[in-house]
Amino acid sequence: MTALYGWHRGERAIQQKLGHSGPVSNQYTAVRSALDEQHREFHTTRLPFVPVTTLDGEGRPWGSILAGSAGEPGFINSSDWERLEIRAKLWPGDPVLTNMQDRGSGTYSDTDLLLAGIGIEFSTRRRNKFAGYVDGVEQSGEDVSLQVRVNEAIGNCPKYINIRELLPSVTRPVVTHDQRHIFDSQERLPEVVTDFIHQSDTTFIGTTYRATKEEERRYPSHVGMNQRGGRRGFVRVRPSDGRTVVLPDYSGNRYMSSLGNIEATPLASLTFVNFRTGDVLYLTGEARNVVAPEAYRIMPGQRALTTIFVTGYVLVTDALPVRERPGTLPIQSPYSPPIRLLADELSTSTSRFTPDDNTTALLTSIRIHNPSLATFTFKASSDITCQAGQAAILDFTSLLGAVAYQHMAASKPSSVNDDRVRTWTISQIHGPREFSLTMREKQGGAVTGTLFSIVRQLQARRPDLLQDATPMQLSLSLIGISGEFVIGHASSKKLLWLAGGVGVTPFLSMLRWIGFEGAAGEEWDIVLVLSTREPDVMLSLISEALQVSEKRAENRWLRIDLFSQEPPNHLDSPKAAGWDVELQLHSGRVGKGVLRDLSVEGPIHREVFICGPESFESAALQAASDVGVPTARVRRENFAF
């Protein structure tokens, strides 16, 4: 037995770091010493495979995938509440093979081959964890029978499981990479491994708890297996060393069993599966839990995460004997928050802050464009460095208060991981400390809803504070300035911008930069394709951005193709010294084939920037692809929140 007598020192430590120790102090009683009848039935009749954790001869955890030869349920039996009999067909490269060899053969004691697993039915999000040890093994070639004595079991939450329909598949496994020990401290992961991680939306995390002699009676050594899910690419690899994997921690049941094991024994494994091809990637390494403010320096905006410095990896193609049904796509969990990039993935010229810097942003004025669109101007407490097109990362906790913990929230899943941190593209840079954010009120949005509520109250009672909001002393923590959606990275002065609605904001700051700072003596040829329901407001914002221009420059061309259901009231093209502006009006929305229809000159030779909500981004990407624009020439900035 392990957690049955309470949380061990690692679990208590991480619970305390994250402020969970009080609420979960007695919840270890949810862990059972055996499988109940429902879970026995689940494992024996519902699962085509089960991820498990075992240790190698050095005590490093490795994840494995155990499955029957046909990719069907029924390869697991349970003769009693404390036992699972797993009859699996192993494929070359799976770490459980060498881990069993490291431990010898025959009968195993609980210190010889610890094992933990997690059963997941991906079509229903149902799952159950178990742990114990192997006390019997029979092996004949690739066929193995494991007698598992279960001493821990718990039903687990389905929050971050992406739904998949899986079918049995015939496999031909091939080990393409097998480096179980990386001895060179400077060695990087192969690009194929990094890409595999960045394309994944699911990983299985294996951990271990190595008890001291003083602890082993109450908290004996054990291993753990758990699942982590999110949006594709939620797990990142640090480009600075090409070897440290970063796993963000999302709001869960607060037991912190996996992170607790890492806190006490800093090792972990990650196993990734490509459910379309059956390829499996196994990693093991040195693990560390990181919480804010240090976590912000690694992944801006993420309060807690785990880093794994990889010390071994194996990649096997065509191994898993199940596949996603052809023509289907996984259904993303509504609880998964937007992906956050690593600080290392941002431009080296990016200016970043952490709360250690005590950098704040004071609201100084509000300009209302219409009832749901306004520009908020802030003044930072210290100088910042910002490029046109970058974004501000702000913590709104001081305005909204911290979010109370909730395990599930069916009516609003996004609220579960709402840490009050938001990222907005800067629409205007006024100087070394002052910047503006043009925001739209999002229906049900915690941050924009509150801000626009303040706007409406000021309109009705204190309109003077819209011009000078400093008396309100509304100050936010400025976590950082980030982003690579910057014009300074463009290798060409021929650009194609596609903007959906308020997605025009980064282009406003770019126009100002071109007109004032970055265009002396240079020719700029820009096509802006803008889809909006508010043509007059958007054209007014563009016109203002164009006014920031030096009269001596006469070598800038801007063509605006405006798509809207309603034509603007004013049909004149925006005017500005130094710009030759052409406005063309179109009815409807931006869709497939639009660039071909517009006869944009040389789109394949232009660098393409796309900013807008997901539906617009998808249509714009397709439109660019239709005219042969290489993906490498497309930069994207969508709305995560």
Question: Would you summarize the structure shown here?
Answer:
The protein contains 13 helices and 30 strands. With 641 residues, the chain is an alpha+beta fold. It has three domains: 3-343, Roll (Pnp Oxidase, Chain A), CATH 2.30.110.10; 346-407 and 414-482, Elongation Factor Tu (Ef-tu), domain 3, CATH 2.40.30; 487-638, 3-Layer(aba) Sandwich (Rossmann fold), CATH 3.40.50.80.
Description of the structure:
- The strands form five sheets. Strands 9, 10, 11, 12, 13, 14, 15 and 16 form an eight-stranded antiparallel β-sheet that branches.
- 18% of the residues lie in helices and 34% in strands.
- Residues 105-111 and 348-356 have low confidence and may be disordered.
- It contains 13 helices and 30 strands.
- The two termini are 43 Å apart.
- The protein folds into three domains: 3-343, Pnp Oxidase, Chain A (Roll), CATH 2.30.110.10; 346-407 and 414-482, Elongation Factor Tu (Ef-tu), domain 3 (Beta Barrel); 487-638, 3-Layer(aba) Sandwich (Rossmann fold), CATH 3.40.50.80.
- The protein is of the alpha+beta class.
- Helix 1 (9-17) packs across helix 5.
- It is elongated, with a radius of gyration of 28 Å.
- It comes from Pterulicium gracile.
